[in-house]
Design a protein that fits this description.
CATH superfamily of the domain at 1-304: Alpha/Beta hydrolase fold, catalytic domain
Distance between the termini: 49 Å
Strand content: 15-25%
Number of helices: 16
Largest sheet: 13 strands, mixed
Amino acid sequence: MEKVKITAPSLGGVTITGITNSDSTVQFRGLQYASIEKRYDYPIAVDKYDSDVDATKHGAIPPQPARVASPVIPKDQLPTSSAPQDEFACLNLNITRPKTITGKIPVIVWIFPGANTFGSASDKSYDPTTLVTRSANKNLPVLFVNVNYRLSLLGFVYVDGRANHSMYDQTAALAWVKAHIEDFGGDSTNMTLMGESAGSLMTHYHSLDPASKGLFKRIGLMSTVIESRTPFPLGDAKGLAAKAKELCGAASDEELKKVPVETLIDYAVPIIGGMYGPVNDGGWLGDLAADPTPYIDRLPLEGIEAVMMGNTRFESIFYKPKIALIPTATRYERLLEVPVVGKWLAEEYKIVPDSDKEEESLDNLVQMYDDISYGQPIDMTVRRFNESGRFKTFHYLFDEPNPYLASLDAHHGVDVLFLFNSFKFDKKFDSFVDKYQTGWIRFANGLEPWGENVKQVVMLNQDIKPREEGEYEVRRRAEAFAKLNAYRHQYDAYNITKRFLYV
């Protein structure tokens, strides 16, 4: 590795030292984009550095519980993270670009997944080195930005009359990139925001936020959209705060601020469980009472010119063991409690309380989870986007199974493995990785990802092919989605599924 120095006029004229992480790419690591003075403060923008910056080491990552080794990646490929956790120093980002560039190049900003509970900008799973290298080799260079932001009870809990700290973090990061990325060789007028799972959900929300207008012109939505995770009611966020206080022995917001971060993250978060997301607190989301338009019916801001989105064949296969922990009769009873659609869902998916039909009922419930959390939301979002005619919409079906364990099928997150290609695959996947990464590279360069006039593709058998007529109905449960669409304003997918996943 060798050091690379640049001068950053927009950041006070300081010298920033990065480091090569391959023969053809350089990274600038741990660049602070905002500061936090006290827990649950909103971020304060950092638009100038007072002295030269050593950006050769990753910055602190957001506090998070310890993670169990991933079942989808061989253990010998999972390095232990050396980056420290720090709730006040975690608002930093990493920039990866080709070592040699000519002019300003397109920018991709990545919001990492992990249920807004796990993950970081320096996680090996999201190392863009091979993608950036490929972009340079194809003469379609991109600059890639990985962003850190606060998670779980530090990022979304309702304290002092406000929530959504994580969303403000991400907005601050986007504004920082817009203002300063040209110092690093990026084109501030040609930015793509994308993510997978929780990162995709956050991307979709940012595309509706007036504060994001002009910050990016394309979005990439991998698996999760607002239709599957609508704004959390204020009561839910208050409930999280109350539960955290109870678990940590805090009697007030002020006392919660003083709870050791290890207690909050390593003790309270695992017990509370769940997925965190934007809260309807009248702040970051705006006054939803003043604008009654349901979030699932809103379209991305004017100025968004293209969307690339899709999902995997069997997103929910990982959730079956969790759902199986709850007795059959309990699952059935909980489903019947869901207003308006509970009884209909039980009948439609043949979910019954009979113990002699345990396995069949469990499989049906997992299918229901898949349909309401991924299949129908993507289906409906693609339809709305296409019907609007306001921007180009590119839709993919990612049906390529896990490259290490084909028995896991094309599970939730498998597309991320291929996007970053940061782990070692069998060489038989080389051509597929090339096509898949190139599609995203072309998209970020403002081109049609899979060739002229190809808007819909299937990714399977280590190949990417245009989708044939009738193939969508074969590969996705279109009939079930149509039935669910009729009820789309009458239920919230997350509030249904959390009844089964969390005791």
